[in-house]
Specification:
By secondary structure, this protein is an alpha/beta fold. It has helices spanning 9-16, 49-52, 61-71, 84-97, 108-125, 146-151, 176-182, 206-219, 240-244, 270-274, 289-302, 305-328, 350-360, 382-397, and strands at residues 28-32, 35-38, 43-46, 101-105, 133-137, 168-171, 187-192, 195-196, 202-203, 222-226, 250-253, 264-268, 332-338, 341-346, 362-363, 365-367, 371-374. The strands form four sheets. The chain has a seven-stranded mixed β-sheet with strand order 4-12-11-10-7-5-6, sandwiched between helices. It has a four-stranded mixed β-sheet with strand order 1-2-3-15. Strands 13-14-17-16 form a four-stranded antiparallel β-sheet, covered by helices on one side. The structure holds pyridoxal-5'-phosphate.
Length: 399
């Protein structure tokens, strides 16, 4: 039995919160670094990181300071006025990625909506008004609002919501021939996650990356990279597209970029920005100054070369340890993923593994139908990585 809070938290959640998530009976009250603590003082090593949001764990001093400093000045101005928190984060992100202009919003789905709209507007302003087709992938995940949901390659998530925006096609992941057949001079954009995380931690093949680049050159279509989960160091490179060598025109961010507060971003190349006019798109809350200040503190740390080297080192250590667990437990299959976005396929129900790990003091999550997903903070120590493997071993032994 998991520790239950005195005031029956889960029962209250069921009473007051819409039933859109299956939640465990756990009352988390505090976080520090890679650990979360429940109301009874039980410690959990957090390999979920708020679904890849808390890239430097909880309460990182540089982030706390940056946010506190900013909230003492102003917490919101709207996008009617220029402000330095946005400009400073945009400048840093653009310097690091070699893109040209930034648009800030609030979330991943909103970043993807923005990118889709900007891609279509770009061609329409150039007079190519029928260039609207967006090619995405089966099992991809791009968000829950209508445009992003239309892009998402999981029909079950669209069920019951009526008609979707048109001109989205989904082709099988890594199917080079299917992509070559579908992309033509009417294609507005190929949209992809460099590593399809929610769909089951599926890595991109080298052939597919090369084909995307070649079709972009041949047909002049845009490439939209959804870096909402892979971006900002998660794969051991600052961008996931750097890991796979993909040339993109628009890149979307959320999750890690807000350092724990809601923030999304679209980075674009200059020719796209050149086609935009005031009023084409917008948001009231997007680019919140406190989130941008925290985001800059985070990006400054993550973009250090030694930091990204440590992400790669932890990844190798975890992969080695996971391979040892796979050798020990026959119901485990194979490792998936790169950097600190890792998965292990399993024949036993993932929900049971997640629950067993939680009982032992490790939080992990799922991806797709049968993949246990590990998303630790990017700054976990070698000792914490080893501790996670040990806890996982204990949990698996009891199954
Ligand atoms: C790759 C990807 N795109 C988009 C989204 C949607 O982001 P949000 O939940 O912030 O709208 C997610 C969320 O998991 C994601 O992983």
């Amino acid at each position: 039995m998991e520790p239950s809070s005195n005031n029956n938290l889960l029962a209250q959640d069921k009473n007051w919160i819409a039933p859109l998530y299956g939640k465990p009976d756990i009352d988390l009250v505090e976080g520090k670094g890679s650990y979360l603590f429940d109301v009874n003082g039980k410690k959990y090593l957090d390999f979920v990181s708020g679904i890849a949001v808390n890239a430097l764990g909880q309460c990182h001093p540089a982030i706390v300071k940056a946010m506190q400093d900013q909230i003492g000045k102003f917490s919101h101005l709207s996008n009617l006025y220029p402000n330095y928190p946005q400009i400073n984060l945009a400048k840093k992100m653009l310097e690091l990625t070699k893109f040209d202009k930034a648009f800030f919003c609030n979330s991943g789905t909103e970043a993807n909506e923005g990118a889709i709209k900007l891609a279509r507007k770009y061609f329409s302003r150039k007079g190519e008004t029928d260039r609207v087709q967006i090619v995405t992938f089966v099992n991809s995940f791009h968000g829950r609002t209508f445009g992003a949901l239309a892009a998402t390659g999981q029909p079950s998530l669209r069920e019951g919501f009526g008609s979707m925006p048109g001109d989205f096609v989904h082709i099988p992941w890594n199917d080079v021939d299917a992509l070559k057949q579908i992309v033509n001079e009417k294609t507005c954009a190929i949209m992809l996650e460099p590593l399809a995380a929610e769909g089951g931690v599926m890595t991109l093949s080298d052939a597919m990356a090369k084909t995307i680049n070649a079709l972009r050159t041949e047909f002049g279509c845009l490439v939209i990279a959804d870096e909402i989960q892979t971006g900002i160091g998660r794969l051991g490179t600052f961008l996931g597209i750097d890991f796979y060598g993909i040339h993109a025109d628009l890149v979307t961010f959320a999750k890690a970029i807000g350092a724990g507060l809601p923030l999304g971003a679209v980075l674009m190349r200059q020719p796209i920005a050149d086609q935009l006019r005031a009023g084409d798109h917008g948001t009231t809350f997007g680019g919140n100054p406190v989130a941008c200040a925290g985001g800059l503190a985070l990006v400054n740390i993550v973009s250090e070369p030694t930091f990204l080297e440590s992400v790669q080192a932890r990844s190798l250590e975890l992969k080695k340890g996971l391979n040892a667990l796979i050798a020990k437990y026959s119901f485990l299959g194979t490792i998936r993923g790169e950097g600190l976005l890792l998965g292990v396929t399993t024949e036993k129900p993932v929900a049971e593994i997640i629950a067993a790990a939680r009982t032992e003091g490790l939080l992990v999550h799922r991806a797709g139908a049968n993949v246990m997903r590990l998303l630790p903070p990017l700054n976990i120590s070698r000792e914490e990585a080893q501790e996670a493997l040990m806890i996982l071993d204990h949990a698996l032994a009891k199954m």
